[in-house]
Design a protein that fits this description.
This protein is of the alpha/beta class. The protein is about 65% helix and about 5% strand. It has 3 domains: about 110 residues; about 170 residues, Rossmann fold; about 220 residues, no CATH class. It contains 22 helices and 9 strands. The longest helix has about 50 residues.
């Protein structure tokens, strides 16, 4: 066993330096923000004072001074806005760097935020994967997920969690590894992406609900009479307005004016009634598809971040090797889905943004007075919904792929940070020979432990049909070593580097029986719960044996221990 020196010190120093720069800039901007705040208050109060004196105190010279103070107030507001926007951006940047630092320092309290823990808890996994995730600390508070994750959006969190808990398949892992190695040197691009992802996560609607709407049926298509009435009501409103104008200004006829007035009121009453009675589902669709105009723009910005991905041309210009070329090939698929072509995610969100601009009339206090007559006399919401469903028809078959690619992109960006921070961690070797199905590790360490206390071991598990029996006294590191193997298998499956000098493995799936608990409410004892878990593992291993594409690596500690207590003595 050998101790492991720190290899992430350079990255940690770099992150702390960035944090110090951010804090310095924030302190300077806070001073400017407070100054602008004081100026705004003073100028506004001066404007009120001089207006009162000028308009009610018969001191006319005070009136222009009041207006000058008010103009100064408006200028101060305009100048203050970029300062506050920059402070908000720095807050997100600080959050990113604090998480990067916390990952290296293994500060689980800072990493396992309430919102992220809730999102992880909502990730749906098969029973076996959920058990392995709990036993090996793949998800949860002090877990592998928190060590490697810089994900912020729901698709990214879900994708990375599924990679960590799913089977480690050689072909998938090799492709991801090449992409990760391509992204690892792109530090500035990755940092900008992390910040943008956090902005999207804070402000945008639920992508799952959006995808469900986009791929579902069109509400207005089965209610075509609403579109017809929207057109008829707009025409009638125009006719009635013309009647009022003719009657009042041209013909001087009260009859024509009254016909136009009452007709216009009738159209308005019908449309307002329809808005309250029939258009509730339409407004629900607006809240899903266009949570706000800003939310659509945020996702467009995040998708557009894929523009910074390297291309085949970059590979040729840099004379990169086959590994980088393979990584770029994988990233090219993501790039094509997110930003290339007329039906890419960026193009789709740009088109949706135009619809959202029309729908935003009802959401803004500044434009609500424009929205009211448009809705009352022309059913504006129906017109927006019609455009929205045209968008839905054009993009419904590709929307799910957008967010799937976004999840992959965000996961690869997260794992690229690990590759950059730990250059001494090795790239796993994958065994394609079906006759060699053992896991071999040299100087393998537990990746969740801090660098300065980690202990490394050489270990081999397999081939199939063999058993590795680990014995030792209490607290001697038996479970730690076993979990080291499982955690590094999970890392290898994602395409990330592993905490070892050498790590060779076949395509493999993990199964565990470690943290088993009883269930008294269902009458299941601890002993029976362990038997149930073992049966699940055996059944799953048999299924994998029939497939012959991957093998099962099973971990258990103190299986089927039975203990009774009688008369105060343990038996």
């Amino acid at each position: 066993m050998t101790a492991n020196p720190s290899h992430a010190g350079e990255a940690l120093g770099r992150y702390r330096e960035h944090l110090a720069e951010i804090q310095t800039e924030r302190d300077q901007l806070k001073v400017r923000d407070r100054t602008y705040g004081t100026i705004r208050v003073v100028l506004f109060l001066l404007a009120l004072l001089f207006w009162l004196v000028g308009y009610y105190g018969d001191i006319t010279i005070a009136q222009p001074i009041g207006w000058a103070a008010f103009i100064g107030f408006i200028v101060a507001v305009v100048l203050n806005e970029p300062v506050r926007d920059r402070l908000d951006a720095l807050r997100r940047e600080r959050s990113v760097f604090r998480r990067l630092v916390a990952r290296i320092e293994r500060d689980w309290d800072r990493l396992a935020t309430t919102s992220l823990s809730r999102q992880l808890g909502e990730v749906e996994l098969p029973a076996g994967q959920r058990d392995a995730a709990a036993d090996l600390d793949l998800l949860g508070r002090a877990s592998l997920f928190h060590l490697v994750s810089m994900t912020a959006t729901t698709p990214g969190i879900r994708t990375l969690a599924s990679w960590l808990t799913g089977p480690a398949i050689a072909s998938d892992a090799i492709e991801r590894t090449k992409a990760i190695e391509t992204l690892a040197p792109l530090r500035e691009e990755r940092l900008r992406f992390y910040v943008t992802a956090r902005k999207v996560a804070e402000s945008s609607g639920d992508p799952d609900r959006f995808t469900h709407w986009a791929t579902g049926p069109r509400w207005l298509a089965s209610r075509k009479w609403l579109s017809g009435w929207a057109n008829v009501s707009a025409i009638l409103a125009i006719v009635f307005v013309i009647s009022m104008v003719l009657g009042f200004l041209v013909l001087g006829s009260a009859t024509w004016f009254k016909v136009g007035l009452f007709g216009l009121l009738g159209v308005g009453i019908i449309n307002v009634t329809l808005t309250g009675v029939a258009l509730g589902p339409a407004h629900a669709i607006f809240s899903i598809a266009m949570a706000s105009r800003g939310a659509v723009d945020d996702y467009r910005e995040l998708f557009a971040a894929a523009e910074r991905l390297p291309t085949d041309k970059d590979a040729n210009n840099n004379n990169t090797g086959n590994n980088d070329a393979g990584g770029i090939a994988h990233l090219r698929k993501i790039r094509e889905t997110l930003v290339a072509g007329p039906r890419s995610a960026a193009a789709g969100m740009l088109a949706l943004q135009k619809v959202a601009a029309a729908g935003a009339l009802r959401q803004s206090a500044a434009t609500f007075l424009i929205y009211l007559p448009l809705q009352a006399f022309a059913l504006w919401d129906i017109r927006v919904l019609k455009r929205l469903e045209q968008w839905q028809e054009n993009y419904s078959d590709v929307v799910a792929g957008w967010f799937e690619s976004l999840g992959q992109f965000e996961s690869l960006m997260s794992l690229a940070a690990l590759r950059d921070e730990y250059p001494s961690w090795t790239t796993p070797e994958w065994k394609n020979d079906s006759s060699d199905r053992s896991v071999e590790a040299i100087e393998i360490g537990h990746p969740l432990l801090p660098d300065e206390v980690r202990v490394r071991n050489d270990v081999t598990v397999g081939p199939p049909g063999t058993l590795l029996l680990v014995t030792g006294s209490n607290m001697s590191g038996k479970s730690t070593m076993l979990r080291s193997i499982g955690l590094n298998v999970a890392l290898a499956g994602t395409g990330a580097p592993v905490c070892a000098t050498r790590f060779a493995l076949p395509s493999i799936e993990l199964a565990t029986s470690i943290r088993v608990s009883d269930n008294l409410s269902e009458g299941v004892s601890f002993y029976m719960a362990e038997l149930h878990r073992l049966k699940q593992v055996v059944d799953h291993a048999r299924q994998l044996a029939e497939k012959k594409t991957e093998c099962c690596c099973f971990y258990s500690t103190k299986s089927c221990k039975a203990r009774t207590v009688a008369n105060g003595k343990s038996q």
